[in-house]
């Protein structure tokens, strides 16, 4: 995958996360600046999702630690847990929000 394709795929994934948060009805604020998306919760905690262009990965930092996702078989998959990015983001949002968050 070239750099342009990488950015297009990450853009789609970030948009899907934003739409998922909106659809969930959860009180989660999000902001994208440059290569970083920040999700902020009522208690002040955050989840940081950012592009790692040199490795062609997406990285997530949350209360549970750091996670690295690479595109495998069309899904952004965590090298540590094997979870799909959207699954992990939903799990982490639930932990940070203190209530189930799903989309």
Automatic annotation (TrEMBL):
Transmembrane segments: none
UniProt xrefs under HAMAP family: CyaY
Family in the record: Belongs to the frataxin family.
Record CDD domains: Frataxin
GO molecular function: ferric iron binding; ferrous iron binding
Record's GO cellular component terms: cytosol
Superkingdom, natural source: Bacteria
PROSITE patterns reported in the protein's UniProt record: FRATAXIN_1, FRATAXIN_2
PANTHER family xref list: FRATAXIN, FRATAXIN, MITOCHONDRIAL
Organism: Salinivibrio kushneri
InterPro entries: CyaY (IPR047584), Frataxin/CyaY (IPR002908), Frataxin/CyaY_sf (IPR036524), Frataxin_CS (IPR020895)
Protein name: Iron-sulfur cluster assembly protein CyaY
Gene Ontology biological process terms from the UniProt entry: iron-sulfur cluster assembly
Alphabetical UniProt keywords: Iron, Metal-binding
Pfam families per the UniProt record, alphabetical: Frataxin_Cyay (PF01491)
Lineage, opening ranks: Bacteria, Pseudomonadati, Pseudomonadota, Gammaproteobacteria, Vibrionales
Function: Involved in iron-sulfur (Fe-S) cluster assembly. May act as a regulator of Fe-S biogenesis.
């Amino acid at each position: 995958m070239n750099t342009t394709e990488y950015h297009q795929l990450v853009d789609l994934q970030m948009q899907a996360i934003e739409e998922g948060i909106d659809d969930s009805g959860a009180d989660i604020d999000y902001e994208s600046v440059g290569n970083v998306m920040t999700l902020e919760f009522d208690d002040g905690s955050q989840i940081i999702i950012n592009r790692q262009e040199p490795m062609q990965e997406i990285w997530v930092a949350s209360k549970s630690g750091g996670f690295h996702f690479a595109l495998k078989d069309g899904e952004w998959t965590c090298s540590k847990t094997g979870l799909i990015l959207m699954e992990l983001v939903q799990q982490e949002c639930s932990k940070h929000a203190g209530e189930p968050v799903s989309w």
